[in-house]
Amino acid sequence: MDRLLKSISYIFHPLVMPLFGVVYYFSISPRYFPEEIIQAKLVALFILTIILPLLLYLILKLIGIVNTVNLETTKERIYPLLLNSVVVIIVLKKILTPSQSPELYFFFVGILISNIACLLLAVMKFKASIHMIAITGVFMFFIALSIHFSINLNDTLIFMAVSTGAVATSRLHLKAHSYIELIIGTFIGVIPQLILVTYWL
């Protein structure tokens, strides 16, 4: 059981969720994007949102700022969250534009806001669930896409609802978070996406 719940935490790891949202967007969007543009953006986002954070984590671990990839203490979270905010700003400045794909642009603005909120809470010694922030933010984005494009995404939304429950269960069972940390994480993930929907819906 523990192995299954750990696997769920790794499958829906916060690092992969933004790229998952982007891949899904390109797969269901009725907008036309040249294939080379899609490939270039996906490669750039893979490097910036997955490879670069992993390299930064290894550097932070090497110099003793973090101990584990789970960032178990609020002190360990500060520098990774700060660096991740910088990475998201680079994505917004160099990879995504509000004119070409407003949905993705504001999706990442929401990610940035959630990241900064989580960082501020870490500074105040509160450990909101980053897993819940990530998965609920993407879940809200998919709901908005369904409404925006008038596409029936019920299967995907059911999958995301079940996955969100599974992630919450895994974090509780593994004693990684308390109920309040999961609830706060959910709010931090959903509210920025919900507010920013008004700019592109």
* Class of secondary structure makeup: mainly alpha
* Share of β-strand residues: under 5%
Topology pattern, helix = H, strand = E: HHHHHHHH
Q: Looking at the structure, what is the overall shape?
A: globular
Q: How many H/I helices?
A: 8
Overall pLDDT metric = 90
SSE layout and pairing:
Elements: H1 2-11, H2 17-28, H3 35-62, H4 74-94, H5 102-123, H6 130-148, H7 154-173, H8 179-196
Can you give keywords for this protein?
201 residues, mainly alpha
Task: Describe the protein in words.
This protein is an all-alpha fold. 75% of the residues lie in helices and 0% in strands. It is built from eight helices and no strands. The longest helix is centred in the first third of the chain and has 28 residues, at 35-62. The chain is globular, with a radius of gyration of 16 Å. The model has no long low-confidence stretch (mean pLDDT 90).
Brief account:
Helix content is 75%, strand content 0%. With 201 residues, the chain is an all-alpha fold.
